[in-house]
Amino acid sequence: MTEIRGDWPLTTLGEEFEIQQGKSLSPNSRRGQKPRPFLRTSNVLWGRVDLTTVDQMDFTDEEFSRLSLVDGDLLVCEGGDIGRAAVYRGPSAHYAYQNHLHRLRAKTDEIIPDFVVHWLRAAFTQLGLYEGVGNKTTIPNLSRARLSQLQVPKPDPDEQRQVAGILGNLQLAIEVEAAICNKLAALKSATMAKLFREGLRGEPLKQTEIGEIPESWEVVRLGDVARITTGTTPSTDEPEYYAGDIPFVKTAEIDGQIILGSSVHVSHKAVSDYRLKLYPPGTVFLAMYGQGKTRGRSALLGVAAATTQNTAAIECFERLVPTYLWHWLDSRYDDLRGMGNLGHLSHLNLGYVKDLLIPLPSVSEQEEIGSAIDLIRRRLQVTKDKVRILDQLFRAMLASLMTGAIRVKDLNLAEVSHV
Questions:
Q1: Contact call for residues 39 and 103 (beta carbons, < 8 A)
Q2: SS3 of 266, please?
Q3: How far apart are CA 70 and CA 90, in angstroms?
Q4: In this structure, are residues 4 and 404 in contact, taking their beta carbons and an 8 Å threshold?
Q5: pLDDT tens-digit series, residues 220-260
Q6: % pLDDT > 70, the chain
Q7: Is 2 a residue whose pLDDT tops 60?
Q8: Angstrom distance (rounded) from CA 7 to CA 138
Q9: How many CB atoms lie within 10 A of CB 389?
């Protein structure tokens, strides 16, 4: 453990904690006379016990007394994500736990369970200090014997508390922002569903082939109100084609945002040799191919760029507002992915895209709808960026604080506490 400060004493989990494994879950325990709530590995997240969904099984009075949790108990996953840990904070003698969890109860107040949680996270996920500690069985697991032998640093308890407090504040900030993200994403979805069905003018609705829409709206074929083409990919065997400054957007970069750049650039020679079209800002890109969640995603081009043959590039005519179309495609993401799974195909094609039927209000209402949805999208993106930055900060601080590369005394705790 050479990465750890030399002036920090080392100890083992077995020296500092009483370790107890939980009860096995079996069909018979489901039919017992005394069902009690118990925690599973799915309830133990890194640094947090999630009590949203709690299962029950039968425990005798003796079992429940022996295996019930008290506030401050450390829970460590024996299987699955081996070593994942959190401190239980809640009423004593209310929950027990299953055999895939180890309960660690501190023997003295010289070891701080919250500090150990962060240490385990650093050691297992970043520092590579516990590689291979699990038993090598068909299903790898972390036995009580091996867990008890794991070495942990043991700085002064006050420093342990301060380190845990800093990292805990960062983790709480991430969770708060992530919850805001979820609410904003739900708000965006609900707003799109309402506006693309009811509009903004309070008009009576009429039934159409795409469902109910306001009376003044039309249903049009996308290919009749936009020019729809695809790009071309220059040969990757010619390095000079990719030694330029012209953005070349791949489908993985079509992610629901305004595209202001790309990771790949092509040269003017590539544009000339392959007659690449540089699509203007305001073009809507739709991914027709792509792994995972990529296929069916859309984005709005914010700079002139070329793209691949796997992208449908949609240039709107005067009657169609790009921002409106972009958000409408976003609202139909699941439907678009379903279209690409018909028969033997696992992708979209230009024929599908051109034949899409879209609701078409007046240009002014399109602009208002696009602006209303984009306001939520921008707020959501800001929050996502905050989550990403906070997560990066947490990971950096986790590694630095847990190895002693940064000491608590070197930090301005007043600033950290207000992250």
A1: no
A2: strand
A3: 7
A4: yes
A5: 999 999 999 999 999 999 999 999 999 999 999 999 999 99
A6: 92
A7: no
A8: 40
A9: 12
Helix segments in 68-205, DSSP class H: 113-125, 144-149, 157-198
Longest dimension (CA), the chain: 80
**Token match 């091996």: residue?**
146
Quickly list H helices, 282-344.
322-331, 333-339
The position carrying tokens 């489901």 is 30
The whole-angstrom separation of Cα 79 and Cα 100 is: 6
CA-based nearest residue to 255, from 338, 196, 333, 178: 333
Structure confidence at residue 306 (pLDDT): 98
Reading the block at residue 315, the tokens are 């240039």
Nearest to 123 by CA among 53, 46, 8: 46
Give pLDDT, residue 181.
98
CA atoms lying within 13 Å on the CB side of residue 168: 14
Q: Give CA separation, 260 vs 165, 241, 302, 303, in Å.
A: 39, 21, 5, 6
Residue-level pLDDT at 117: 97
- Copy the structure tokens of residue 39: 């925690």
- Phi and psi for 264 in degrees, rounded to 5? -115, 140
Residue 79 pLDDT? 81
Q: Tens of pLDDT along 111-148?
A: 999 999 999 999 999 988 887 776 655 557 899 999 99
- Chain center to CA of 159: 32
Average predicted confidence (pLDDT) for the chain? 91
How large is the angle between the packed helices 113-125 and 157-198, nearest 10 degrees?
70
